[in-house]
Amino acid sequence: MIKQKKVQWPWHVLTVLVLIGLAGALYYATSLMSYEWRWNRVPQYFAYQAEEAQRAAEHSTIIELVRKGDTAEVVLRGEDGKEQRVSVADNSLQWVEGDEVDEGDVIGVNRHWAAGPLLWGLWTTVWLSLVSGVLGLIIGLATGLCRLSNNPTLRDLSTLYVELVRGTPLLVQIFIFYFFIGTVLNLSREFAGIAALSLFTGAYVAEIIRSGVQSIARGQNEAARSLGLNGSQSMRYVVLPQAFKRVLPPLAGQFISLVKDTSLVSVIAITELLKSGREVITTSFSPFEILFCVAGLYLLINLPLSHFASRLERRLAQSD
Amino acid sequence: MIEVHELVKVFDTRGHIVRAVDNVSTTVAQGEVLVVIGPSGSGKSTFLRCLNGLEDFDSGSVSIDGLDLANPKTDVNAYRREVGMVFQHFNLFPHMTVLENLCLAQKVVRKRGKAEREAKARALLDKVGIGQKANEYPSRLSGGQQQRVAIARALAMEPKVMLFDEPTSALDPEMVGEVLDVMKTLAREGMTMVCVTHEMGFAREVANRVLFFDHGKLLEDSAPEDFFNSPKDLRAQAFLRQVL
């Protein structure tokens, strides 16, 4: 049969139509339950103008007011002749020149941009993922090599660890770490959360590393050993670099999972992205918008991560 | 130089016991070229792998210049530095360029400086006729070229002995010649070599001695002209009738 070149673009158009249809169905469904979409409430939870009240230090008189653009420079003189200078946002100024103010009276406010709870939650999720990911990689590499070790004790212990961790839910592990180990050893909640996440990730990384090393043909190790390299040199220079290349896709998948799994530590009251979102929902009464934003922020972390992994994969593939 | 004394290697796969190398004794003198032949499964490859400790053995001894593999105090890594090995499937490191393949062990094991090891590598690549491929990855090379790189990689360690484990068996027929030519050059230069091979022409032309193995036993150990013209052992006669 002669190969026929098929036109692709109509199918992409169909894809877009399907997506539009789904979005329409979603909109229709929410309209049935008379949900009012208020996206305009969302941005303030990302960043907002924080106000910092400027107060008079003592009973004093406003002797001078200088307006410079948006800010107003206010000079107060107290009864003992001591001067106080404050600068406040012009449109928040409550007084005019000559007014008398008491100690503690608000002269005006200073405004500056501050990160809202969603951004703080995003930051917490990012650093939790980073720390747990790095620790998980180290634990996983060590455990994976122990699984392949000739020493029976190392092999037994690493197998036990992997099986225990993979056979129990992460949520249960987080509770055990926080309520049991955390109480016994007096750990902070962040420490307990990171410990649970990195041990969980470590077990999976160990299996990925082990399968990667085992997938490298035995001849590679034999060739290295025949050149006089010892076991660990052969592992480091010959086997692991090839294994790493091979396990990069599952490893990237594991780290993407980790980012998502950090949402579970919200149960021990670490205010990461999901918990921030839920707190925002209680004040904003806009659960759908906030949950969509939370989901979007997880995507914001994970899409670049998988993009980076596939680029690294392509770069390492140049020797094939 | 190499002394093998009553070497025994037993494979025990779930009670199924195979004496892969059965009480083999022989010696290899400096500069000698030995060709090991025999039907498949005769233990010739296992014998070769015992010579550099890639395969552990059950009893007997293997030594090179007094360094005895049977002695548990022997540093097997130090031993292997003196023994180069070339594999049937080349086993080049695919994540390294040809030059890096030749430099790795020089750097890690011999601790040679960058200039020294690269000069050595380039000289050896020129010698095996692929100097212009130094910066290619192995996957870009033909089988014959890869095997020549593998020979150069082993030579870079300046071994006292070279072991060849069916170096041409995985090659397309038109590439066998280029690899054998390199091996012949080495033999002429006085390299001590032990080659497991099915290349009877090479055995006739280059070997000082031919060892014939069957069922793990060393059945014949004779000069090539004697072996090919008047083999003493019945199984060797049957084998030669089939391959010649």
TrEMBL record, chain A:
It comes from Pseudomonas psychrophila. It is a multi-pass membrane protein. CDD domains: TM_PBP2. Residues 122-309 form the ABC transmembrane type-1 domain. Belongs to the binding-protein-dependent transport system permease family. HisMQ subfamily. The keyword Cell cycle does not apply. One of its GO terms (molecular function) is transmembrane transporter activity. Keywords: Amino-acid transport, Cell membrane, Membrane, Transmembrane, Transmembrane helix, Transport. The chain crosses the membrane at residues 12-30, 126-148, 160-185, 191-209, 280-301. It holds the Pfam family BPD_transp_1. Signal peptide: none annotated. GO terms for cellular component: ATP-binding cassette (ABC) transporter complex. The keyword Transmembrane helix applies. InterPro entries: AA_ABC_transptr_permease_3TM, ArtM/GltK/GlnP/TcyL/YhdX-like, MetI-like, MetI-like_sf. Gene3D superfamilies: MetI-like (1.10.3720.10). PROSITE patterns: ABC_TM1. This is Putative glutamine transport system permease protein GlnP.
Automatic annotation (TrEMBL), chain B:
PROSITE patterns: ABC_TRANSPORTER_1 (PS00211), ABC_TRANSPORTER_2 (PS50893). It comes from the Bacteria. GO terms for cellular component: plasma membrane. Belongs to the ABC transporter superfamily. One of its GO terms (molecular function) is ABC-type amino acid transporter activity. This is Amino acid ABC transporter ATP-binding protein. Keywords: Amino-acid transport, ATP-binding, Cell inner membrane, Cell membrane, Membrane, Nucleotide-binding, Transport. The keyword Transferase does not apply. It is a peripheral membrane protein. It comes from Pseudomonas psychrophila. The keyword Coiled coil does not apply. Its main location: membrane. InterPro entries: AAA+_ATPase, ABC_ATPase_HisP-typ, ABC_transporter-like_ATP-bd, ABC_transporter-like_CS, MetN_ABC_transporter-like, P-loop_NTPase. It is found in: Cell inner membrane. Residues 2-240 form the ABC transporter domain.
